[in-house]
């Protein structure tokens, strides 16, 4: 598994854990950076992703809600919400990640970790965000 793929998975784990435990994800990130719970410390790219999602949280959630066609954020499985937030951040704001790569990585996480229908949903929603990205300035 590539280093960035692992970093994305760890970022997803933090986003999901924070939501499930009712914690602020920024606080959880700082806690994990200060005192890692695994042998390997968090990669810098994991921290960059989580900080990016946190920095654009409201805009990301608004866009996901707007373009998800009949699915409110609350109705989505929690893991899909976390995957979509992460993928949306990379599609919309990460200048060093090509949009197709960000979408593919998010679909891979959905395939590995969520329902049978999730990869198609994640792919469609993130592709739509990539399509409308030029109009969002």
TrEMBL record:
Pfam families in the record: NusB
Protein role: Involved in transcription antitermination. Required for transcription of ribosomal RNA (rRNA) genes. Binds specifically to the boxA antiterminator sequence of the ribosomal RNA (rrn) operons.
Gene Ontology molecular function: any one: RNA binding
GO biological process: DNA-templated transcription termination; transcription antitermination
Transmembrane segments annotated in the record for this chain: none
HAMAP family: NusB
Family assignment from sequence similarity: Belongs to the NusB family.
Name of the protein in question: Transcription antitermination protein NusB
SUPFAM superfamilies per record: NusB-like
Organism: Nostocoides japonicum T1-X7
Keywords associated with the record: RNA-binding, Transcription, Transcription antitermination, Transcription regulation
Family matches, as PANTHER family: ANTITERMINATION NUSB DOMAIN-CONTAINING PROTEIN, N UTILIZATION SUBSTANCE PROTEIN B-RELATED
GO cellular component: cytosol
Record carries keyword Transcription regulation: yes
């Amino acid at each position: 598994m590539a280093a960035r793929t692992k970093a994305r998975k760890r970022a997803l784990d933090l986003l999901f854990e924070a939501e499930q435990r009712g914690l602020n994800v920024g606080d959880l990130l700082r806690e994990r950076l200060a005192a890692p719970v695994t042998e390997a410390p968090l990669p810098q790219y994991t921290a960059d992703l989580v900080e990016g999602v946190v920095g654009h949280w409201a805009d990301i959630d608004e866009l996901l809600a707007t373009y998800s066609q009949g699915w409110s954020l609350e109705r989505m499985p929690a893991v899909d919400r976390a995957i979509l937030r992460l993928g949306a951040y990379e599609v919309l704001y990460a200048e060093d990640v090509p949009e197709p790569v960000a979408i593919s990585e998010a679909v891979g996480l959905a395939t590995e970790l969520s329902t049978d229908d999730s990869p198609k949903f994640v792919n469609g929603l993130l592709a739509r965000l990539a399509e409308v990205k030029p109009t969002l300035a």
